[in-house]
Amino acid sequence: MKTEKRKRPGKIVLYDTTLRDGDQSEYINFSKEDKLRVLQELDRLGIDYVEGGWVDGNPRDTAFFEEARGLRLRHARLTAFGMTRRAGQRASRDSGLRAILGSGVAAATLVGKAWDLQIQEVLRISQAENLRMIEDSLAFVKRGVKEVFFDAEHFFEGYLSNPEYAVRCLRAAESAGADCLVLCDTNGGMIPAVVQRVVREVRGLVRAALGIHTHNDAEMAVANTLAAVEEGVTQVQGTINGYGERCGNANLCSIIPTLQFKMNRACLPPRKMALLRRCSRVVAELANQSPSRQQPYVGDSAFAHKGGIHISAVRRNPRAYEHVLPEAVGNRRKILVSDLSGKATVLEKAREYNLDLSGKEGSVQEILDTLKLMEKQGYRYEGAEASFELLMKKALGKKRKFFRLLGFRVLDEKKQEKEPPYSEATVMIEVDGRVEHTAAEGKGPVNALDHALRKALEKFYPQLRSVELLDYKVRVLPAKEGTASQVRVLLECWDGKRKWTTVGVSHNIIEASWQALLDAVDYRLQLD
Amino acid sequence: MKTEKRKRPGKIVLYDTTLRDGDQSEYINFSKEDKLRVLQELDRLGIDYVEGGWVDGNPRDTAFFEEARGLRLRHARLTAFGMTRRAGQRASRDSGLRAILGSGVAAATLVGKAWDLQIQEVLRISQAENLRMIEDSLAFVKRGVKEVFFDAEHFFEGYLSNPEYAVRCLRAAESAGADCLVLCDTNGGMIPAVVQRVVREVRGLVRAALGIHTHNDAEMAVANTLAAVEEGVTQVQGTINGYGERCGNANLCSIIPTLQFKMNRACLPPRKMALLRRCSRVVAELANQSPSRQQPYVGDSAFAHKGGIHISAVRRNPRAYEHVLPEAVGNRRKILVSDLSGKATVLEKAREYNLDLSGKEGSVQEILDTLKLMEKQGYRYEGAEASFELLMKKALGKKRKFFRLLGFRVLDEKKQEKEPPYSEATVMIEVDGRVEHTAAEGKGPVNALDHALRKALEKFYPQLRSVELLDYKVRVLPAKEGTASQVRVLLECWDGKRKWTTVGVSHNIIEASWQALLDAVDYRLQLD
User: Fold this and answer.
1) What is the 3-state secondary structure (H, E, C) of A392-444?
2) Is the Cα dihedral B367, B369, B374, B376 positive or negative?
3) What is the rounded CA–CA span in Å between residue A286 and residue A272?
4) Please, which of A239, B131, B259, B447 could form a disulfide with B442 given CB 3.0 to 4.6 Å?
5) Is the pLDDT higher at A298 or at B363?
6) Which residue of A has its CA nearest to B510?
7) Whether the predicted pLDDT of B337 surpasses 60
8) Residue B192 and residue A187: Cβ atoms within 8 Å?
9) Quick check: pTM over 0.95?
10) Residue B51 forms beta bridges with which residues?
11) CB nearest B510 (choices: A303, A412, A506)
């Protein structure tokens, strides 16, 4: 990574803390292997600094920093995180600071206090000792690493409470050689107007580069970050997908494209922006979080269009309904297969599925008619494209029949008030004239049916063994019929390579689930 | 609702579009009943205007507006939504505009174009005709309703492309009597600096009140809204939980507390702010969306604290790690190691149910323990208070047992590919030593079970005949187990006088439904 490039005016330095602050999220817990993969993914995307975590003797992170040293990073600089020394101790004796130097990183970030209330009520030390802690610690670490950044915790509250002292904390870090003074909105409660005023004032009082680190407790993390950039901050800290404790950190997946496309501030190397969605997905996968469909820029629904007029307008001029081109961030336009859709949508989808519809006006009309009928019955294909693909293939005579159902039976029996019912299913199918009759139990009727069906089919189609059910959703369709309402079931499957979703609708939840199960199995079989 | 109060300088007018723009979300589809409940919930919270939807002949919304007329709203004004008249037509002939007048609302919002590119490329009409469409339509509707608002679609793109024309669109609406000119960031791609500049300029060019309507495509919806308020906009449009198509709309659950607590702009009546979390939850439940744990202000994790130092610091001074007090928005601090809160809620609820808990420390503890256990298993009582009331009554020994279950059996049998399965249930119960054994069929297994249970019970308790099942909701709980996932069932009942909701949770959907059914019946029986 070229330092000159980073210092060129206008270039924003990206600092990712997914591996520390993201890992603080209540629901995220990266393994060492996850952390190594995230690091490589962030390097590939073109992030400048990747904060690897605390270097404080925690075995997972010690091992992570050790193994990370062996990776050849093309762009990113791995950064260690630590705290200023303890009160009343020498920096050179502080085990955390020594561990940072021992980790072999070229950059480190130290967090220290900058709010008089915290120093008095939480740390219970003198303001002068806090300044010495900052100065000693940064100076000590700076001797062993190329770059040291200072995270000024609660900087905004500190500045609003005692501006003079807050700035003295920054100056202590500056005089110790800090390469960047990072203003932290630790509680996440600031609003852009305040951030902007504070940064503007601070800007004139220190010489070192400024950074910004925000949290999303007022849904302002991204806006506060960009407000700070407008006032001259050059280092931006955040996490992929906004992961972080409480309401999360500033979301780099939103900040990066807005900086580049809307504020004309370069931050990623050219051609890297299109990797943004991929990076968001890989990190979500490693964090074991389902990706948010509605996530700005990178979510599945971010460029989803409903309704005919809307769609033809987007075709005429994407600017009419899209704020940026989806491809620019590696996303794609999603034309929702909805009851308002027409021929254009069907043709678009056929292209996507590699189905040739040219000269097949009749089939297109048949697909449209079927679609209308199915949607009237409560089917929705927006979230169940595998079922839609099957529907199209069927209309085109391209859907092979792999088996025939001869019948099933599901029994739920409860014999005691306190015990859940026992569920058992039997399934009878026919494949090429051979009849297979199976029985299975399960956690509930649908699960029992699922087991019995697979038991019957896997004999003939062993490729189904790799199919896993990832997600099962049930939606009761609006109608005033209580337990006789129609239900719509969505099933998501995964076979190690691809994910697909299918749909079923019925008054009977067993039947709706059955339909979705059949489509799920059928979709996989049609692929061979 | 007092109009003077709304017009007092400084007061921000809250305009909710959950029922229209929220309902546009790819995954939300409110029923008429859902919409009526959302309307009442928003009224209770103190929202000024509730947009009910398009009034365009869609049967669900026609019925909704009709029934809504019968509701006594304490604060909110129900608002109808429509489009400016078609090109080349008279406003008085436009069926949409006539439908608005026919719906009996006191306020209406009309959306029209304000971007030259849209007018030329999408509408393909002259700029002059577009101005006439705006003016005619607003003037026509204004004759029949007290207040008319103009949603200027794509206003910001329009202003950036052709400021003079965009402002002429606003003026056309103004001269037709518009009570508020709402600047819409339809594509959701604006950033606060641009919004602020445009609003500041427009502010000097029109006299009517200004409104703001934003989308979240750049994760800026809340920030853009507040930036507009800082420049003098007085009407704020948004949705509960930010529901809306693509990346969602401006989230009122974040905007409201930030306005009130951080910008000192009153918007909710005093004492209402503490209902915010409840409102967010009820709307999520009705929208069948799992609430986001990380949602600012109202999410489960919004005030979650990890680690000892953090916690003792928060105890010493909540400001140390909390940007607002959780109770202020009806949320609570979540101490992740040992959760000690909750007692206050239980006492509060007991008062609500007229249960005397004074001097019953043991019972309170028992309720808290049970609650904790149940929530761990996936039960949620926010939307199912009847089940919670039963739980409390049971802990206090005030729950009478009306019958005992000896067993049930549910059979679903499918004999042909094209036909839905046949469902049959048998139920055996005992009431005062008398055994009743019944059988019934139904549309699906739960419906059959419901029929068999009522058949058995109505003999002994004829008051159950008036109990109607209004709504049945199923949510698959997050866990990647496919069809073996846990499900939570919510049942809403009505006996002609009151509505109540109950909950059941199990791996088996039949068992979860059974629990909710039992609670529903039990709740009614306990009333006598």
Assistant:
1) HHHHCCCCCCCCEEEEEEEEEEECCCCCCCEEEEEEEEEECCEEEEEEEEECC
2) positive
3) 21
4) B447
5) A298
6) A444
7) no
8) no
9) no
10) B79
11) A412
Q: How far apart are CA A522 and CA A514, in angstroms?
A: 12
Chain A residue with minimum CA distance to B300: A246
* Token pair of A209 as six digits: 């580069």
- Predicted-complex ipTM score: 0.75
**A62-69: long-range pairs with CB below 8 Å, 24+:** A62/A99, A62/A103, A63/A32, A64/A32, A64/A35, A64/A36, A65/A103, A65/A104, A65/A105, A66/A103, A67/A32, A67/A36, A68/A36, A68/A39, A69/A104
pLDDT in tens, B237-258: 999 999 999 999 999 999 999 9
- Joined tokens for residue B347: 């006492």
Q: Do B468 and A479 touch (CB under 8 A)?
A: no
Quote the CA–CA distance of A380 and A384 in Å, as a whole number.
7
DSSP H helical ranges for B442-494: 445-458
Q: How far apart are CA B114 and CA B123, in angstroms?
A: 11
Q: Which of A471, A488, A492 is nearest to B482 (CA)?
A: A471
Question: Among A142-146, A258-262, B312-316, B523-527, whose mean pLDDT is lowest?
Answer: B312-316
Query: How many angstroms separate the CA atoms of A517 and A238, rounded?
Result: 41
Residues A274-306 as b or e (16 or more Cβ within 10 Å = b): ebbbbbbbbbbebbeeebbbbbbbbbbbbbbbb
Supply the pLDDT for residue A143: 95
Encoding tokens for residue B56? Answer: 């365009």
Cβ–Cβ below 8 Å for A245 and B306 = yes
**Has residue A5 got a pLDDT over 60?**
no
Whole-angstrom Cα distance, residue B272 to residue B269? 6
B114-134 pLDDT per residue, tens: 999 989 988 899 999 999 999
Residue B145: count of CB within 10 angstroms of its CB: 18
DSSP code for B249: B
CA distance, residue A70 to nearest chain B CA (Å): 33
Model confidence at A406: pLDDT above 90: yes
Residues in chain A closer than 8 A to B413 (CB atoms): 407-410
Q: Do A317 and B117 touch (CB under 8 A)?
A: yes
Q: Which two tokens stand for residue A374?
A: 């199915």
Report the distance separating Cα B30 and Cα B23, nearest Å.
6
Q: Where residue A381 falls among pLDDT bands split at 50, 70, 90?
A: confident
B309 chain-A contacts, CB cut-off 8 A: 122
Question: Residue B125, Cα to own-chain centre: how many angstroms?
Answer: 38
**Nearest-angstrom CA–CA distance, B233 and A208:** 38
Would you call A360 helix, strand, or coil by DSSP? coil
Angle at which helices B221-230 and A192-203 cross, to 10°: 80
Q: Nearest C-alpha of chain B: how many angstroms from A225?
A: 11
Query: Phi, psi at residue B165, to the nearest 5°?
Result: -70, -40
A509: helix, coil or strand? helix
Disruptive mutation site among B414, B441, B453, B494 for chain A (greatest number of A CBs within 10 Å): B414
Backbone angles phi, psi at B103, to 5 degrees: -80, -10
**Contacts A–B by Cβ distance under 8 A:** 353
CA distance linking residue A224 with residue A249, whole number of Å: 11
Looking at beta carbons, which residues of chain B come within 8 Å of A415? 407
Beta-ladder partners of B211: B182, B235
Amino acid present at A280: S
What is the Cα–Cα distance from A473 to A504, expressed in whole angstroms?
11
